[in-house]
């Protein structure tokens, strides 16, 4: 015999309704009270969803039919005599002559609820706690173009407790870094290394995309690509959220790798010089000084600067005096 009919009343069905009847009633009400159509009926929609979630599950429905979510028989809940319904106990301890200490703690009889259910009337499934633990798997659907930190909310899927509105489960997306691409809004950034011959004479480069395709970019002979040049490919970036057929840009920064010292013999170097644009010669005068270029390491310079400051601090540090040995 069904002891509680509230959820059945919410769906507008009889307690002996079949699963097909429950599903039909839920779909009709969900369509009518969905927040997208009725923004002011959010509470009603949650009640409908909660009722259907319980009644559509055979085990939950059986528990609900037995106790209605109260944890025991109707009328079995009574005010806790130990704390008189406050949920807290106050104890007084004497800590010295004329000195007492008042300690407030959660009532162990009712676990702070202020009410209890007699052991003989308690529900056997939940032992009077009004809730049962269960695992539920939620399927998270991530739409194309969603961003780092974006939230996906499952309304009413939090912990449930009689008399309280179930909370929401909120999934926060954490975007992993990629070894090649860096995302900036709808655009993808990447760096591409090319050789000097490619920068001068053109090249073709394949790029594996995030959606398992391969695109080929081409620089034609005569189109010089300089170190640090930035170019883009339209419609090859990230999909735009809720506009999945539109994409941002793939932006490429080129790094030109120059050959090592001595890669050409003197005669070939002269030949190369003839092929390249003529360089401007400098006429030296007596007022000019010849200097030599050497390699510069910024890290080494920073270390040297740091050591120099430490040495200066040591030079200006006052030295401790020596204690006089005579008395």
Which properties best describe this structure?
327 residues, alpha+beta, Helix Hairpins, HSP40/DNAj peptide-binding domain, 7 helices, 14 strands, 24% helix, elongated
What does this protein structure show overall?
The chain is elongated. The chain is of the alpha+beta class and 327 residues long. The strands form six sheets. The protein has a four-stranded mixed β-sheet. Strands 1-4 form a two-stranded antiparallel ribbon. The termini are far apart. Among the domains are: 1-73, Helix Hairpins (Orthogonal Bundle), CATH 1.10.287; 135-175, no CATH class; 182-257, HSP40/DNAj peptide-binding domain. β12 and β13 (243-247) form a beta hairpin. It contains seven helices and 14 strands. This is DnaJ heat shock protein family (Hsp40) member A1. A zinc finger (CR-type) spans 51-135. InterPro entries: DnaJ_C, DnaJ_domain, DnaJ_domain_CS, DNJA1/2-like, HSP40/DnaJ_pept-bd, HSP_DnaJ_Cys-rich_dom, HSP_DnaJ_Cys-rich_dom_sf, J_dom_sf.
SSE blueprint:
Blueprint: H1 6-11, H2 19-33, H3 42-55, H4 58-67, E1 77-79, E2 88-96, E3 99-106, E4 115-117, E5 151-154, E6 169-172, E7 182-184, E8 187-195, H5 196-201, E9 203-208, E10 214-219, E11 230-233, E12 239-240, E13 243-247, E14 250-257, H6 266-275, H7 298-316
Parallel strand pairs: 8-14
Antiparallel strand pairs: 1-4, 2-3, 5-6, 7-8, 9-10, 11-14, 12-13
Helix pairs in contact: 2-3
């Amino acid at each position: 015999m069904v002891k509680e009919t509230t959820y059945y009343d919410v769906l507008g069905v009889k307690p002996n309704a079949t699963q097909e009847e429950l599903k039909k009633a839920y779909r009709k009400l969900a369509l009518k009270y969905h927040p997208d159509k009725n923004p002011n009926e959010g509470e009603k929609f949650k009640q409908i969803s909660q009722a259907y979630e319980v009644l559509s599950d055979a085990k939950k429905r059986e528990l609900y039919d037995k106790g209605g979510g109260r944890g025991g028989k109707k009328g079995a809940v009574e005010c806790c005599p130990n704390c008189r319904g406050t949920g807290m106990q106050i104890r007084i301890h004497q800590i010295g002559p004329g000195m007492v200490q008042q300690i407030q703690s959660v009532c162990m009889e009712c676990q702070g609820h202020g009410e209890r259910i007699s052991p003989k009337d308690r529900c056997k499934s939940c032992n009077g706690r009004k809730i049962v633990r269960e695992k539920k798997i939620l399927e998270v659907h991530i739409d194309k173009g969603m961003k780092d930190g974006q939230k996906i909310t499952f309304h009413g899927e939090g912990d449930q407790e009689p008399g309280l509105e179930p909370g929401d489960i909120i999934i926060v997306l954490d975007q992993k870094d990629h070894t090649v691409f860096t995302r900036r809004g709808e655009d993808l950034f990447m760096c591409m290394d090319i050789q000097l011959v490619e920068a001068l004479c053109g090249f073709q480069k394949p790029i594996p995309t995030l959606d398992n395709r391969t695109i080929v970019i081409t620089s034609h002979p005569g189109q010089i690509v300089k170190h640090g040049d930035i170019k883009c490919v339209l419609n090859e970036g990230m999909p735009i959220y809720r506009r999945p057929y539109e994409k941002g840009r793939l932006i490429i920064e080129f790094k030109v790798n120059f050959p090592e010292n001595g890669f050409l013999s003197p005669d070939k170097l002269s030949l190369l010089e003839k092929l390249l644009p003529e360089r401007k010669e400098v006429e030296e005068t007596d007022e000019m000084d010849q200097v030599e270029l050497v390699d510069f390491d910024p890290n080494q310079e920073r270390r040297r600067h740091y050591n120099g400051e430490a040495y200066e601090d040591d030079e200006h540090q006052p030295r401790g005096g020596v204690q006089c040995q005579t008395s």
